Amino acid sequence: MSETATEKSTSETISELVPIDLLKDEIDQVSQFYDVLIEFFTNYSFQLVGAFIIFIIGYVFAGKISGLVLRLCERNKLDITLSRFLANTTKMLIVIMITIISLGKLGISVTPFIAAIGAISLGAGLALQGLLANYAAGFNIIIIRPFVVGDTITVDGVTGIVKEVLLAYTILSDEDNVEITIPNKHIVGEILLNSKNDSLLELTVGIDYQHNPIEVVELLKKVIGELDIVSDIREPMVGIDAFADSSINIAIRLWTPTISLYAAKYKAYEAIYVALEQEKIKIPFPQRDIHIVSSLSKENI
Asked: Cα–Cα–Cα angle for 71, 77, 78, nearest 5°?
């Protein structure tokens, strides 16, 4: 009986010692971490404070320089999109330089970070070729300025008034106030027509051959000149366009503000019809004369 009691007491003592040993190990680990932390702050406290101060001062300096670049661009009347792009790019570059200096102050090598950024940039560039092409084209448009906001352009079969020029795409607007978004890569390198604020309106009307076309041309010049649809920059052109089968075609070419292109077209045709009606000038319709020739054969005589 005594040996059994002794064995129980020994096992209980061992079971009590095991948690104590584990707790001691944990305390030792915390103590080592604390010693390392104290040693790190003892050795690098000034470097940490210096790096933090350098970063804060550099960030504020980057903001000041960015604002200065923006004001300088606005003073020279550069495009607002280009001005903001230059300002933001300047700030980003300064912040990157300050970050590299701050990491160097801590004794951290930035070479692996630069290599990783380069690899990531290469992969992102391959994955985003279309998007980057649009940004590059947009930057080219802002620098070269083949058109500005308010111009009427025709590109890739689409015509509209330039509403906004962004780095990735350009927004056009038509007479119906419909917005047309064109990726900038489809603008740069393509045939671009820029007619500024106006669009060309071409009209045609046919008159009967019994009328004098020269007199009709003078009449239509007067009619078009009295309308308020013609741009002040270019004079309208009226003349004989063709001698067709059933009519003499009179062509009218005039420049009118793009924002009211179709309204001007309908107004011009209405005025032309009223003028021709008042002067009793006929607008012929297509017609064809058919001659029937009958012949009797000798057998039917």
From this structure: 85
198-207 sheet: strands from edge to edge: 198-207, 248-257, 237-243
Contacts of 49 (CB under 8 A, 6+ apart): none
Nearest of 180, 128, 131, 145 to residue 159 by alpha carbon: 180
Q: Domains, the chain, ranges and CATH?
A: 6-127 (1.10.287.1260), 147-194 (2.30.30.60), 198-278 (3.30.70.100)
- Residue 144's pLDDT is 83
Amino acid type, 269: Y
Phi-psi category of residue 194: left, alpha or beta, with phi > 0 → left and psi -120 to 50 → alpha:
beta
* Integer Cα distance of 204 and 126 in angstroms: 53
Is the dihedral angle over the CA atoms 258, 260, 262, 267 positive or is it negative? negative
Q: Count other C-beta atoms under 10 Å from residue 83's C-beta.
A: 20
Q: Which residues lie across from 205 on neighbouring strands?
A: 250
Coil, helix or strand at residue 252? strand
Report CA-CA distances (Å) from 144 to 152, 167, 186, 221: 17, 13, 16, 39
Q: What is the pTM of this model?
A: 0.56
pLDDT of residue 108: 64
How large a percentage of the chain has pLDDT more than 70? 71
Residue pLDDT, tens place only, 85-99: 778 888 888 888 888
What's the start-to-end Cα distance of the chain, in Å?
A: 160
